[in-house]
Amino acid sequence: MAKKGESALEQKSGFNPNEFAKETKEELDKVVWPSRQQLIGESLSVILMVTLSASLIYFVDQFFHWAQVRVFG
Predict the structure, then answer these.
(1) Consecutive 10-residue runs of the chain (73 residues): their mean pLDDT?
(2) Residue 51 backbone phi and psi in degrees, to 5
(3) Contact between residue 64 and residue 56 where contact means Cβ atoms under 8 Å apart
(4) Where is the secretion signal located (predicted)?
(5) What pLDDT was estimated at residue 17?
(6) What is the 8-class DSSP label of residue 3?
(7) Which of 15, 17, 34, 48 fits a 20 to 30 Å CA distance from 54?
(8) What whole-number distance in Å separates Cα of residue 51 and Cα of residue 58?
(9) Extents of the domains making up the chain
(10) 3-class SS of residue 33
(11) pLDDT for residue 14
(12) Which of these, 32, 48, 52, lies nearest to 40 by C-alpha position?
C-alpha cells in the first residue's frame, strides 16, 4: 500500500515546461536586484582588486626573474 507522500510524487513525475517557466519567473521575482549605483560601485571594486592582484603577481615575477639572472647569469 502506497503512503500519502508517494502518491503525490507519482502524479508530479515528468517535466512540464510551462510549469518550469512559471516557477522560474516566481523565483526571479523574489531576487533583490542591486541598484545601478551599487552595481557600478561593486564592479569597480572587483576590477580594481583584479588589477592590483595581477600587478602584484607581475612585479613578484619580475623580481624573481631579475634575481635568477643575477644568480645564474
Answers:
(1) 55 83 95 95 98 98 97 90
(2) -65, -45
(3) no
(4) none
(5) 92
(6) -
(7) 34
(8) 10
(9) 16-72
(10) coil
(11) 87
(12) 48
